[in-house]
TrEMBL record:
Presence of keyword Transport: no
Enzyme class, UniProt record, top EC level: hydrolase
Superkingdom, taxonomy of origin: Bacteria
Location of the Peptidase M4 domain: 245-396
Places the protein is found: Secreted
Signal peptide extent: 1-28
Cofactor(s) it depends on: Zn(2+)
Protein name, entry field: Neutral metalloproteinase
Gene3D superfamilies, A to Z: 3.10.170.10, 3.10.450.40, 3.10.450.490, Neutral Protease Domain 2
């Protein structure tokens, strides 16, 4: 489940480059485009940022930028074909603007070509002075989130069609942190959102418990992956050194893991070949500090025994899933780490006491895995597509920062941007399975198929409404705005599947699919590799925090035009796929105010 963290403004800039496509349907190699730094592309990051800032103010009627605004670059993207894109967050009179993010698009010569913006209205609040003190706002936030409040920071809340002066407060309890936004004039709580990204929503957990359904996915071992397994370091003379270890996992059998030899005969579950990516043991605590986790060490370089009785078994699954997710993003898009900053991805297993969930936690920028509650969930949620799904929330958090429209009192989230976030997590989580191609976890367009659910999967991309647990929808309607985000995710997931594989019956890796269309039209897919390239380009270049399904259609059309041309089959099929889930120009809803 997407539980967004509304971040403060940071000025760090990451320069990224993008391949024009993906290398084959198995994602076996690097992208087909040539990665280039900003300098080798004929300019540098600072020049691109300055040009984009100048363009934003010069085209104020389109960008919405006005006097008192400051733009802080979050990402600079240089496309092989020459386009440049700068993602900005905004401050107004020094205050962070929530929902004020935008992407300025430039051509090869740094001339302005367009903008993608979250707020389609002026971000200056009607009231310029707070009536509440910071302490009063913090007290209201603590009451709303039932925890200990940190200091309150003045912000401009430009979300949901209007702008208001507000306080942003981080509230901490045993389970983690929440971000609470309190109106600085009226004292009304404008939003109260847990910061961690849970895989399973409160509603689904309650429904499963109400049905008395127990999830106890099968475990077991498999033959080692050929050419990957080993133990120890051959001829190492200095330490730490890379080592070749074996993970005996709960769900994907015996797998090869790159580990670290800390000295002769001593190993740590840390991968030096992937930026130092590591999995640690939270030992039942609720810590959100990765440094507080206990490192997994071994004298054999064998991790786990395929059962929950060995604490390292879950760690082996987690480390395998995290590294496969990193490898997928790098092979497919040249992305270096979750935030594309060549930094480690991290995970902690055995988190909390009887926690029946897994999380992407932006507070520690790491994965947190509970062991299950011992009743509904009997095992840790360390299956491969769960990790791919949750780490993709990290990718979204580092790019478009898609957020739900509103959250109910039980923590369930609603609205199209949040549903789109869930959909992207399912889409790319599925792609991680295809990339890993592990015989113990057959690649498919099903999500959570290894959880042991009675319906055999949690969600599916080809025919989302076959999910009767979350009541996922196949097609867009105005009610999508009020739909819980996991249920609403079916709209864009279905569009993606139709783009990739087409409509009707199809069997892939022994799994039968039968994808319907709203208009009963036939859709011929363009292949998973191209469809995934389009959705990734759309996410990173043309989506912002408020992007809904109709705006996602525009984003994917722009991405298809970038990659394949406006007259291409790929571009036309994007349009056809969205129409097949009832997302068209004709039914675009009016802006909400």
């Amino acid at each position: 489940m997407r539980r967004p963290h509304i971040r403060g403004v940071a000025v760090a800039i990451a320069v990224t480059t993008a391949a024009t496509g993906l290398a084959g349907t198995a994602f076996a190699g690097s992208g087909t485009g040539v990665e280039r730094s900003a300098a080798s592309a004929g300019t540098n990051a600072s020049a691109v940022v300055k040009a984009a800032q100048a363009a934003a103010f010069a085209h104020a009627s389109a960008t919405g930028v006005s006097k008192g605004d400051e733009l802080h670059a979050q990402d600079v993207m240089i496309d092989p074909e020459g386009a440049r894109h700068v993602r900005f967050v905004r401050t107004l009179s020094g205050m962070p603007v929530l929902g004020g993010d935008l992407v300025v698009h430039l051509d090869r010569t740094l001339a302005y070509t367009g903008v993608t913006r979250a707020a389609d209205h002026a971000v200056a609040p009607a009231a310029s002075r707070a009536r509440l003190t910071a302490d009063q706002a913090a007290a209201k936030a603590a009451q709303a989130a039932k925890g200990e409040a940190g200091s309150a920071q003045l912000v401009v809340d430009a979300r949901d069609g209007a702008a208001a002066l507000a306080y942003q407060v981080t509230v901490t309890d045993r389970q983690g942190t929440s971000t609470v936004v309190v109106d600085a004039v009226t004292g009304k709580v404008r939003s109260n959102t847990p910061d961690s990204d849970e895989f399973l929503s409160p509603k689904l957990l309650a429904d499963l418990r109400g049905r008395g359904e127990t999830l106890d996915p099968a475990t077991g071992t498999a033959a080692p992956e050929a050419g990957l397994l080993g133990s120890g370091v051959s001829g190492a003379t200095t330490y730490p050194s890379p080592a070749r270890g074996t993970g005996k996992t709960l769900f994907v059998g015996s797998v090869g893991l790159t580990t670290t030899a800390t000295s002769k005969g001593h190993y740590r579950l840390k991968d030096p070949s992937r930026y130092g990516t590591e999995t640690r043991d939270a030992k039942g605590t609720y810590t959100e500090k990765f440094s507080a986790g206990t490192a997994f060490t071994s004298t054999t370089d064998v991790w786990g025994n395929g059962t929950t009785g060995n604490r390292a078994s879950a760690a082996a699954d987690a480390q395998y899933g995290i590294t496969k997710t990193l490898d997928f993003y790098k092979a497919a898009f040249g992305r270096k780490g979750i935030a594309d900053n060549s930094k480690a991805a991290q995970g902690m297993v055995h988190w909390g006491s009887k926690v029946a969930n897994a999380f992407w936690d932006p507070t520690c920028t790491c994965m947190l895995y509970g062991d299950g509650d011992g009743k509904t969930f009997k095992k840790p949620l360390v299956v491969l597509d769960v990790t791919g799904h949750e780490l993709t929330h990290g990718v979204v958090d580092a790019t478009a920062k898609l957020e739900p429209t509103f959250v109910d009192a039980k923590g369930n989230q609603y609205g199209e941007p949040g549903a789109l976030n869930e959909s992207l997590a399912d889409i790319f989580g599925s792609n991680v399975e295809f990339y890993a191609n592990n015989p113990k976890d057959t690649p498919d367009y099903l999500i959570g198929e290894k959880l042991g659910l009675a319906q055999k999967f949690l969600r599916r991309l080809d025919h989302p409404s076959l999910d009767k647990l979350e009541h996922t929808i196949d097609y867009w309607s105005p009610d999508a705005y009020y739909t819980e985000v996991h249920a609403g995710s079916g709209v864009s997931s279905h569009a993606y599947y139709l783009l990739a594989e087409g409509s009707g019956k199809k069997t892939i890796n022994g799994v039968a699919y039968d994808s319907p269309t709203y208009n009963r039209a036939t859709v011929k897919g363009i292949g998973r590799a191209k469809a995934t390239a389009i959705f990734y380009r759309a996410l990173t270049r043309y989506m912002v925090s408020t992007t809904d399904f109709h705006q996602a259609r525009i984003a994917t059309l722009k991405a298809a035009q970038d990659l394949y041309g406006a007259n291409s089959i790929e571009y036309k099929t994007v349009d056809t796929a969205w129409a097949a889930v009832n997302v068209t120009v004709a039914n675009t809803p009016a802006a909400r105010h």
